[in-house]
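Hello,

Our lab assistant flagged a job as stuck in the queue for most of the afternoon. It eventually completed. Since we weren't sure the result was trustworthy after the delay, we are filing this so someone can double-check. Below is the sequence as submitted and the structure that was eventually returned. Let us know if re-running is recommended.
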Amino acid sequence: MKGAVVLILFVASAYAQDGAAVAAAEAACGPREVNFDVKQDTTKRPIPEADSAKALLYVVEDLGQCPDCGRGMGLGQIATDVRGALTKVGMDGSWVGANQGSSYFFLSVEPGEHHLCMNWQSRMAERSRAYAMANLTAEAGKTYYFRARVFPGEHDYSFDLDLVNSDQGKFLVASSSFSVWRARK
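-- returned structure --
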């Protein structure tokens, strides 16, 4: 009996530590109750340059390697359809924008260390618990490109947020629509 109590306390302690680590990682995000409405604007393609006092950050949702995801799906494949994935992006504890489908947005950021978070906004609980994290030490006058990807698998998906080189980043922006988003609570 004493051994079972020790085991339960050990497992509870390990779970609490994991929960604290998850909460610390999610601190880069914004409040859970904030959601976004997103549209793609195919008539505009703003591509600003970084100013000398701040860095410029592009976030591109890239579904380019999966253009037919979901096409011809049966009911059993709906769970792997990612064509309309809406991903919201947070930085340092606040939501800063959102993408849906192959789209991008940009923002100016202060120089220094930043923690980014991407969360899949979905009514499906397993998807809305999906997060990807990244960090950035921004330098004034520089431009950074992050690629957000959601890939379907046979029974699940992979989800990531990665810094890409400027050549890849410019290509992704040029081949994506501009994301027009609005936060709602």
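-- support follow-up --
The delay was a queue issue, not a problem with the job. The result is valid. Residues 4-15, 71-78 have pLDDT under 50 and may be disordered. The CA atoms of residues 87 and 120 lie 5 Å apart.
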